[in-house]
Amino acid sequence: MRYRLNNPLNRMNVKQQLFLLFLIIIIPLLILNAYGNYKADQILKRHVTNAYIELNKQNFRLINRDIEAVNKVTSTVFQNSLLQQLNPLSTDETILQRVKNYEKLENLLTTYSQETDEREPVYYSLYVYDPQNTYFFAPFYPGPKKSGVYFFSDDEKPDWFDEAVEKKGKGYLRLIDHLSPPSKGQGDQRTLAYIRAINNIYRNGTIGVLVVTNLDARVQESLQTVSLPEGELYFTNWSNRVLSAQSNEHEDVLELPPEVADMGMTSGVKDVITSDYIYVVNYNHVLQQKLVYKVPVQALLHQQKEIKQVIQLISIVFFAGSLIFMLYFWRSLMMPIQKLVYFVRRYEPGNIVPETPRREKKDEISVLMHSIYEMARRLNALVHYKYTMDLKQKESQLQILYQQINPHLLYNTLESIYWKSTMEGNTASAEMIKELSKLMKISLSRGRELITLGEELEHASAYIKLQQHRYDYQFRISIDVPEKLLPISIPKITLQPLIENSIIHGVKHMGEDGEIVIRAASDEDNLFIFIEDNGYKSVDYEMINRLLDEENPDPTFGYGIRNIHQRIRLHFGANYGLQYSKREEGGTRVTLKLPKSVREQP
């Protein structure tokens, strides 16, 4: 058995095939463009990152130089004989000697705190534990931008003092919120400080803690010398807590990518390029410090334009040539086909066919267009003929439906019997004959096919009274129709068959519990009449609604309600008619939808 390969192009129309051709031409260009931009971005990122690495090294070296200078000064202060002889627990000194020593230490620290090169000064302060308050005369008002010697008791001890003592003379950087307990009414004292405990050279123990404040301003000077395009600079400790930053608005802890978050026990420089940022991190485990450059990738990509411009120029030229090539075929082939497709989709049998478009070319498309327009005109002629025949058929059907009503002679005869029964004293029989004559009178309606809703309700009431007299029915009847709706015209003998169904299939055996409700309502365009009963029998509403619309219904299906449904549609169209549904309180509801615009006929 031979298998034949199917060409997938056979399943595509001409427009799709042309579009596929255009994609085959353009897609390689787009791929080349995207690849060129990608490689240009990667090269730029790598070159810029290498430049930032060198800049970061120099910046980190400057910061470490400042910190090392501070460390050397603290070593000098550490070895000062006056400081080494300081002992608040000693009772050999007089108050005057203590005052003189205090003044000398104050002058010493003030001297180191002065800067001569117009840079931000750093302030050296000595904190000494004085449990016996022997230096009671020394003021205890430390500040981040002032130097001094401060003696404190247990209730004035700063929270970082014991931490510094535990490091046993090793200096370190720390972000300090308060230089003394905040209960002393301090303001904002947040500062980056270099802290180092001063140990006694001659005997064991700690003399105090030397604190160098305002280091964040000194670090800020070094950070401000670097300019990054929309980038951010951070100076952090080993736990990524921000000690100083180029911007004042930043988080307390810097979030870094996993590749640079944990450096281990090493020192050096590492860079990571993510989809959003370039990170350059210079870290020193010995000093427990990091200098982080965080540069947005988009800020760099704005700078690389030349390579993209060349690639884009080639792409535009190639795209323009392809577009011109496609437009030529589009105008000569696809535009006539599109016009023809537009006509075929919009055309409905019976509508006016416009003039056949003229074409200078005598090709296959011209022949096709001429043939389709002529075929539409011939189809219109057939549609008009069929419409005329259908109209005559509907008129015949209406006449047949209305001929099912009894003739005028029966009405006159009933009137005579009514008067005779009244004169003979047969009141009940006379009343029934009277109601029946009303039925006949309204059924004839002087030959009118449409009567008012008020007349139809009178016809329905006469039928109900006749049935109650005839079978002694005890059900209740309720009619709720606004007066403004009574003049609206509806097809005659519309309500009576529906009420008959409600009696026979709904409330016939319910006695006084049975109830039939006739209501009417309207909106802007339509009239709705509802006939409801509280019957207890189960009803298949979907089947009834389906059989109402079938062309060849089941002969056992009720003829009366289908007669009503068909007459309404013959008068007003397929949007109107009957619909059966379940009543919310139990029972059945029949809804008649009629146009409100039809008025009473003379």
From TrEMBL:
Keywords: ATP-binding, Cell membrane, Kinase, Membrane, Nucleotide-binding, Phosphoprotein, Transferase, Transmembrane, Transmembrane helix, Two-component regulatory system. It catalyses: ATP + protein L-histidine = ADP + protein N-phospho-L-histidine. Residues 331-384 form the HAMP domain. It is found in: Cell membrane. It is a multi-pass membrane protein. The chain crosses the membrane at residues 310-330. It comes from the Bacteria. Its main location: membrane. It is an enzyme of class 2 (transferase). InterPro entries: Bact_2-comp_sensor_kinase (IPR050640), HAMP_dom (IPR003660), HATPase_C_sf (IPR036890), HATPase_dom (IPR003594), His_kinase_dom (IPR005467), Sig_transdc_His_kin_internal (IPR010559). One of its GO terms (cellular component) is plasma membrane. Residues 431-598 form the Histidine kinase domain. Its EC number is 2.7.13.3. One of its GO terms (molecular function) is ATP binding. This is histidine kinase. It comes from Paenibacillus lutimineralis.
